[in-house]
Design goal:
Layout (H helix, E strand, L loop, with lengths): L1 H5 L2 H18 L23 H23 L8 H12 L18 H10 L2 H6 L2 H25 L2 H12 L2 H7 L5 H21 L2 H15 L8 H18 L3 H29 L14 H4 L10 H13 L1 H13 L10 H19 L18 H19 L3 H12 L1 H7 L6 H9 L3 H15 L5 E4 L2 H11 L6 E3 L7 H7 L4 E5 L7 H9 L1 H4 L3 E6 L3 E6 L6
Parallel strand pairs: 1-2, 1-3
Antiparallel strand pairs: 3-5, 4-5
Helix pairs in contact: 2-19, 3-7, 3-8, 4-5, 4-23, 5-7, 7-8, 7-9, 7-10, 7-18, 8-18, 10-11, 10-17, 11-12, 11-13, 12-13, 16-18, 22-23
Length: about 550
């Protein structure tokens, strides 16, 4: 799989070199303020709006990456098990055995599925997995442009802002996630939008920006749980502002701030109420219902053979690179030089809180990662903070370093990390490597079986006794509309027989005993003769049994 990533290098390398020369030339210009016109010596390519330049670069690079990856592997966008599941979840809202809002389910938050829905309804985008790329690339571009705007206001330098945003947007680990139906890019965009609105509010003191920040935080809490630490903090800020307004007898603003506080918590409240209404438990989604507590999670099945702190540090260095981290550290130290008042440290806290949340989860083993790239994608949220802090660090460095050569070397070192990741196997693109490892064994075989089912399918409904994850793989690779699938989980009593006797034309029985299919597999393997009263065996191997209503041709 590493060779697939290397195949992207010819298109990316000239672009990277071109950027280095552009920045090498412009970084010699004095750092200008937001209200100061740019110098006459700025190259013509930079006289255009840098936001558009950034958007064009990211669109071309990400689109090229998508085309090349798909040419090498038609399942490149859904190698992650969660990617396939998110895609199926989105389409099941309108195309399933029982379409409707109940398909939102629990555990996974709904906003990413709602964003995927308009694209997943197109068969070409759904069955190829490209729906994720169609939704993710614009989110990648929007997130990077917002980072550009944040750093530009902090440093007063558009070139440094462009460099800083590029370090995030052109990171291969981020870009691969943008091509998949994963939920990270939705989360990154909403967090960055909230940070941008927070900054505008701190600088301009217009309450509408605090409302925008509250809305972004609320939507982020319905995208990923890392935002659940953020929303109460935004609410506390709004309550504080409301209290100060009440002390000044500004009653209208007081009411606005209180509503803003409630709005920021609205996503969490809505999700708790949804779980109570649908499942009878406010905390049906809670992780302790699905995996052991931290005390029992230490090294389950030997998923990690080194201290978690070492794994976390290795993941951060490999994904972002030592030069970016040094710039970030310098920016943290120098942050006090660019803030106008202590309250503006709220922006630092806002950008850091999601990282604090996920890092704390990793260090306490609620979020599991190992030293072989498994789940390293969880640390990428740190890139939002690192992009902003790194931009400040570069700005402060260039105030001290006047040499064009030294500045050019610095920029080249910052932009070299993507090339290192795509060429050095020991570093690699962790998100793609992780996804490629997941797409193996039973998962890969389920995909092949789905293709076999699709070639055999002659119409009618298909009932799946396979477990959710493998069943969703079969659904996508078969090319059969989802409304024709009936996925059975945790059956019991007469329902398990009724499903087979209800007239489904095909039955797929997965012989592998997964947690959510063990009961049904054991039931039907013990009653093989009962099902053969209604069905013939069309195909059987050590993993799957495909049955068809009597009279269908065998494979």
């Amino acid at each position: 799989m590493h060779d697939e990533i290397k195949s992207l290098l010819p298109s990316c390398k000239p672009l990277a070199i071109g950027r280095i020369f552009v920045f090498y030339d412009i970084m010699g210009q004095p750092v200008h303020s937001e209200n100061h016109p740019r110098g006459e010596g700025v190259p013509s390519i930079m006289k255009a709006r840098e936001e558009f330049l950034l958007g064009i670069i990211l669109f071309l690079v990400s689109s090229t990456a998508a085309i090349k990856l798909y040419a090498v592997d038609k399942y490149a966008f859904i190698l992650y098990g969660d990617a396939a599941s998110h895609l199926v979840k989105a389409r099941q809202l309108v195309d399933s055995w029982q379409p409707g809002l109940e398909n939102i389910g629990t555990v996974w938050l709904p906003i990413p599925h709602f964003l995927l829905l308009p694209f997943s309804v197109f068969d070409a985008l759904f069955f190829s997995g490209a729906a994720g790329a169609v939704a993710g690339i614009p989110l990648l571009i929007a997130t990077s442009i917002l980072l550009f705007a944040i750093v530009r206001r902090l440093t007063g330098s558009r070139p440094i802002a462009l460099l800083s945003a590029s370090l995030f947007g052109l990171n291969p680990n981020v870009m691969y996630l943008a091509l998949t139906p994963m939920s990270e890019l939705t989360f990154f965009f909403l967090i960055t939008l909230g940070g941008y609105a927070m900054q505008r509010w701190l600088y301009e003191r217009e309450d509408r920006w605090l409302v925008v920040c509250s809305v972004a935080a609320m939507l982020a809490t319905l995208s990923r749980y890392e935002a659940w630490l953020l929303a109460p903090c935004v609410a506390l800020l709004a309550i504080t502002e409301g209290y100060l307004s009440w002390r000044r007898h500004e009653h209208r603003r007081t009411r606005t701030m209180l509503w803003t506080a409630l709005l920021s918590l609205g996503g969490i409240i809505l999700w708790l109420c949804w779980n109570r209404f649908m499942y009878g438990d406010f905390f049906q989604f809670a992780p302790w219902k699905y995996r052991p507590p931290p005390s029992a999670a230490n090294n389950p099945m030997w998923y990690r053979q080194e201290p978690v702190s070492v794994t976390l540090a290795t993941a951060v260095v490999n994904i972002f690179g030592p030069v970016v981290l040094l710039a970030c550290l310098w920016g943290i130290v120098a942050w006090r030089k660019v803030v106008r008042e202590p309250k503006q440290y709220l922006l630092v806290a806002y950008l850091a809180l999601p990282t604090i949340f996920i890092f704390a989860g990793i260090l306490t083993d609620y979020v599991l990662i190992d030293q072989w790239w498994w789940n390293w994608r969880f640390v990428i949220v740190f890139g939002l903070f690192a992009s902003v802090a790194g931009g400040i660090g570069v700005s402060e460095l260039f105030k001290k370093v006047r040499s064009r050569a030294a500045r050019g070397i610095t920029v080249a070192a910052l932009l070299a990390m993507p090339i290192v990741q795509m060429t050095v196997t020991s570093v690699s693109v962790a998100t793609h490597e992780d996804a490629a490892k997941i797409f193996s064994g039973l998962t890969k075989y389920a995909t092949s079986f789905g293709e076999r089912l699709g070639s055999t399918y002659k119409g009618g409904s298909v009932i799946l006794f396979t477990g959710t994850g493998l069943g969703e793989r079969i659904m996508i690779s078969s090319g059969i509309p989802l409304k024709n699938f009936h996925l059975i989980q945790y059956p019991g009593g007469q329902d398990i027989q009724g499903a087979v006797r209800s007239g489904d034309r095909y039955v797929v029985l997965g012989k592998v005993r997964l947690p959510d299919s063990r009961e049904v597999v054991d039931y039907w393997l013990d009653r093989r003769q009962l099902v053969l009263q209604y069905y013939d065996i069309l195909f059987e191997d050590e993993n799957y049994l495909l049955l068809g209503r009597k009279g269908l041709p065998k494979i």
